[in-house]
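Notes from the 1:1 (GR / supervisor)

We went over the backlog. Supervisor wanted to see one worked example end to end before approving the batch request, so GR pasted a single chain during the call. The sequence is below; no edits were made to it. Supervisor asked that the structure be written out right there so they could see what the output format looks like.
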Amino acid sequence: MNFRSLAAWRAANHTVGAAHQCQPSMTRRQFARAAAGTAVLGGALGSGLFKPGLADTRASFAPVPIPGGSPFLGGSFHVFGPNSIDPIDAEPITIANLDGSVGLAYISGMVTQTNTQTGETLRLPFTNSDMRFMQGVFRGADGRIHDGTFALV
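Structure output shown during the call:
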């Protein structure tokens, strides 16, 4: 055995030994995060969560309007107005057969109208602005039960 060639080899390859180990390119924490992210993304892609879908035109449905309507509007619109126009106990929803939540607000205040050409502004009042929402399950015109959200502004 030639000790001189062994010493020359050790001098040329100075990374040999316990003190000069290569650092890993990825820590355990980085590996765990990458594995978890890959599992979540793979699960989402595999479940079809990001799969594009086509709209089904046959699935369209129309809610059944409430019978009658505001006498102030001639009864042809299936909605009752604020209590200054219609009775206080008038129906707040505009669709029939709804099982869900209804929100109703009559808002009054001032509006600022700005002309973008000239910069002129006008302050205008508005009174009893009728805003409603309806959310829940209902029987549509097709006779089936549907889940939906509606708004009337």
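Supervisor's comment: DSSP finds two helices and three strands in the chain.
Batch request approved.
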